[in-house]
Design goal:
By secondary structure, the protein is α/β, with parallel strands linked by helices. It has one domain (about 15-65, about 80-130): 2,3-Dihydroxybiphenyl 1,2-Dioxygenase, domain 1. Helix content is about 15%, strand content about 40%. It has helices spanning about 20-30, 85-95; strands spanning about 15-20, 35-40, 50-55, 60-65, 80-85, 100-105, 115-120, 125-130. The strands form 2 sheets. It has a 4-stranded mixed β-sheet, with helices on one face. A 4-stranded mixed β-sheet has the order 5-8-7-6, covered by helices on one side. β6 (about 100-105) and β7 (about 115-120) form a beta hairpin. The longest helix has 11 residues, at about 20-30. The radius of gyration is 15 Å and the shape is globular. About 25% of the residues are buried.
Length: about 130
Amino acid sequence: MTMRTSGVHQPNIWSSVVSDEALELRDWLLALGFTEDLMIPGERDGSVHHCQLDWPEGGRVLISSTGERPTPCRPGTSSLHVVTSDPDAVLKRALTIGATVVHQIVDQTDYPSRDFTVADPDGNHWTFATFAG
């Protein structure tokens, strides 16, 4: 199989994730290495209206609690790809917080990547990979 790529790296997509336990998800992502840029509490006690978390190597994810805003998104239905130069370090942090490993870390053979996938508390899949396109 021949792999073609434009060679252009696109680190600035902002994915939105809706969570039944948004504060727990925020803490989970912070433990993996994300940093908090903005936090707007929700209407209900313990809910999140809008939270922005940045990945140190580029990109941002937005989190909100279920029911905070009109959206077709549902908890546990997202699959996100996070580019990192050190997936082994991220996996170590993920295991420390008891993350569910969906796919063990592997060096891919059909494209240049070292990656693994974990499930967050809602069941969303997060792949951390060296492959950036």
